[in-house]
Amino acid sequence: MNTIDRAGDEERPDDGGRVGAQSATATFGAGEPLALDSGISLSPFTVAYETYGTLNADKSNVILICHALTLDQYAASAHPVTGKAGWWPFMVGPGRPIDTDRFFVICPNVVGGCMGTTGPRDIDPATGRPYGLEFPVITIGDMVRAQAMLLDRLGIGDIFCVVGGSMGGMQVLQWAAAYPDRVFSAIPIATAARHSAQNIAFHEVGRQAIMADPEWKQGAYLIEGTTPAKGLAVARMAAHITYLSETALHRKFGRNLQDRDTVTYGFDADFQIESYLRHQGSTFVDRFDANSYLYLTRAMDYFDLADDFGGVLANAFRNTKARFCVVSFTSDWLFPTSDSRQIVHALNAVAANVSFVEIRTDKGHDAFLLDEPEMFATLRGFVDSAARTRGLGA
């Protein structure tokens, strides 16, 4: 057994070699630039990804997993930095809802990330130094465009299913809107078609914490040989609160004191919740890049799918042929069920094939990463049904 810090230290299985993970990278040279929404072309660039399972003869069994903000391509295999189990082992593996005995699963790291896909800490070929803030601003659309180029490189035309939660769910929606002929089914989980003012505000708090750290050096900390660890840790602590619910926090910590019987009348971590958040912050610094955090949060802030379609969300799905399964959680206050209902209403407006499930849970936004049997049953049923329609045997 192993644990993952993002999901609140819940025990989770570690399938180790059973999942048969393969790590790879695809590099796109000067002749294959990534056209960004900002108008800038990113070239060269590399996409790092993991695959699980076997691609069938007609390449019809592909499931694309889109990861959330601070996650990565290691959905079902051990993380190379932390050594901890992948972030979605309950969902991905032999016999799981995303069954790696049946499907060929691809999970790429997003552009702007820091786990092998080109991002701000990589070397800018124009200067020979890390990009830092010279890295172009990216969007959810840019992430999806890079994934489409990866699939083209792999000779994969369309996708049986694209699935993801939170920022990953934004990518799922973008895929359905931008590539309606390439998506057979889609599962956006705990997400929204645009980032709310409240969520932009939380991201801004995190970014300001990083930029206020004197070791940030205007984004040039890699050149200066420093690390804005304190700022990044505070950003992580603030964000982590939004991933949980009050009920989950109270159940786990209450007002319990940390290794003491009375308060100290000072500013040490008297309470267990304080110690927990400090641990989350310090361990996050070991595996994530501060500038990547700035760029990826900004990409979420800019996401407004309707804005690209005349301000009418339904227009984003007007050409879709995909069947959708939209999932939300009752205690998710970061992406509440009302956000998912807006997606469903837009899909209904164009007579799309859509089902919607609100999972009753008190685990908050991070429920999609945790052991949620109702979610597993829902997604297993949806995937199996879509597979039968696709002609993929059990």
Can you give a write-up of this model?
The chain has 11 helices and 14 strands. The protein is of the alpha/beta class and 394 residues long. The strands form 4 sheets. An 8-stranded mixed beta sheet has the order 1-4-8-5-11-12-13-14, with helices on both faces. A two-stranded antiparallel ribbon has the order 2-3. It has a two-stranded parallel sheet with strand order 6-7. The model is unreliable at 1-9 (pLDDT under 50).
Helix-strand topology string: EEEEEEEEEEHEHEHHHHHHHEHEH
Q: Biggest sheet: strands, sense, closure?
A: 8 strands, mixed
Strand elements, count: 14
Number of helices: 11
Strand arrangement, largest sheet? 1-4-8-5-11-12-13-14
Query: Terminal Cα separation, in Å?
Result: 29 Å
Strand content: 15-25%
* Uncertain regions spanning at least 5 consecutive residues: 1-9
What radius of gyration results from the CA coordinates? Answer: 20 Å
Overall geometric form = globular
Mean pLDDT: 94
Structural class by sheet pairing and helices: alpha/beta
Question: Which range best describes the helical content: under 10%, 10-25%, 25-40%, 40-55%, 55-70% or over 70%?
Answer: 25-40%
